[in-house]
Amino acid sequence: MNFSESYINIHTHHKAKDENVIAVVDLSSQENPDFLSERYVSYGIHPWHLTEENTDLKLHRLQTALQSAIFAIGEVGLDKLQGAEIISQEKVFQEVILLSEQYQKSLIIHCVKAWEQLLAARKMSRTNLPWIVHGFHGSKELARQLLEHGLFLSFGESLLRNISLQSTFSSVPLNKIFLETDDADMSIEDVYICAAKVKNISLEGLKQTVAENFITVFNLK
Ligand SMILES: [Zn+2]
What we know:
Layout: E1 7-12, E2 21-26, E3 41-43, H1 55-67, E4 72-79, H2 86-103, E5 107-112, H3 115-125, E6 131-133, H4 140-148, E7 152-155, H5 163-171, E8 177-179, H6 188-199, H7 203-217
Parallel strand pairs: 1-2, 2-3, 3-4, 4-5, 5-6, 6-7, 7-8
Helix pairs in contact: 1-2, 6-7
The protein binds zinc ion.
C-alpha cells in the first residue's frame, strides 16, 4: 500500500467510498461491529454514551474488540458538556489507557473542555504511545500545550470555515497533524485542499507528510 498516494482520513463514522482514501472507521456506536469489514477500524467508548450502568459492558466490549485486532482505540475521552459525570469518565479513561498499553494501540481522543484532565491522565500514564486529539478546534496556546505532551492533532470540517483555527493550524508542525471528516458529509479531499492552502504547501507534499505521520504513529513499517 502506497500511503502517500492516498488521502488518509484519521477519524470517520462512514466507510470510505473512494479507492484513493484510507479511512480509520469508528465502529464504536455499533451494537455488533464487524471488525473485519474494514482494514482500519477503531473502537472505543464515546464519553457521550457512557453511563454508570453500562461502564463494565463497554469496557468488556472494548477488550473483545482489542482481541479482534482493531487498528486503534477510539473515540474515547473526556467531555465536560455531555455524558456521564466527569469523574466517572476519568475512571473509565484510566482503564482505557491501561488497555491501550496492554495491546499497544494508539488512542483517538474526543475532548471537550477537559484539557486539564486529559493532560493529567497523559502525565500519570507515563505512556509513549501516540494519542491523537480528533476534531481539534482550540487555540494556538492549547495546541502548543498538547504538542508539548507528545500529542498529535487532527483537524476536520471546522478548518474550512474557522479563520482563527486556520491560524492555529498554521502554527502546528506538519509532523504532528492528521485530517478527518468525523461525521460530516464531506470528502476528505476537501479538508486536504484547505489544509494545503493554509500551510502553503502542495497537495502532494501534504499527502506525503500525513502518510509519514500515519506510518510513524501506527508503526506501519
Ligand atoms: Zn467522531
